[in-house]
Amino acid sequence: MFEVVVGVSSRHVHLTQEHLEILFGPGYKLTPLRELNQPGQYAAEETVTLVGTKGSINRVRILGPVRSNSQVEISLTDAFVLGINPPIRDSGDIEDSSPVILEGPEGEIELSEGAIVAKRHIHMHTEDADKLSLKDKDHVTVEVDGERGLIFKNVLVRVKDSYECEFHVDTDEANAAGLKTGDKVKIIPQKALQEAFK
Question: What is the value of pTM for the model shown?
Answer without folding.
Answer: 0.90
